[in-house]
Write a structure and sequence with these properties.
CATH class of the largest domain: Alpha Beta
Distance between the termini: 34 Å
Strand order of the largest sheet: 4-3-5
Helix content: 40-55%
CATH architecture of the largest domain: 3-Layer(aba) Sandwich
Strand content: 5-15%
């Protein structure tokens, strides 16, 4: 299974041809429900991965969560959020990640943030706000 955002990201002819083959062999393209998307967003905020997950990442993880399936990915942020949700993961080429909790911290003055500030810069000193392991 996959989500429509993944299909929409396919740009080259080779990728589209592979998709057609997979669909002819039973690949299902469907989108997760709102509750599953909300669960992923909540978990990614708690894990500190929300700022690096795309809408497509969120949809893919929400579908795995909703279907009680296994998530095949090498993306560490996706793996980490999946771990926080109890979704089984299987790395493809990379080694298995470990569960982490990230915090947002200004690289200049050290101020911590609960959510990424507008423009990803500190409202105190103007330095970049980055993820830091808790």
């Amino acid at each position: 299974m996959t989500v429509s955002r993944v299909v929409n990201e396919l740009k080259d002819l080779r990728g589209k041809a592979r998709l057609d083959v997979l669909i002819s062999r039973g690949l299902i393209v469907t989108d997760p429900g709102r509750d599953s998307i909300t669960a992923v967003i909540d978990a990614s905020e708690k894990s500190g991965d929300k700022t690096v997950l795309s809408e497509t990442d969120i949809d893919v993880l929400a579908l795995a969560y909703e279907m009680r399936g296994k998530l095949f990915t090498d993306d560490y942020a996706l793996q980490n959020t999946a771990r926080h949700m109890g979704v089984s993961i299987c790395p493809i080429l990379q080694k298995n990640s470990v569960k982490k909790k990230w915090r947002l911290r200004c690289s200049g003055c050290g101020k911590y943030y609960e959510r990424m500030p507008e423009g990803s810069v500190c409202d105190v000193c103007g330095s970049p706000v980055k993820r830091k392991i808790k």
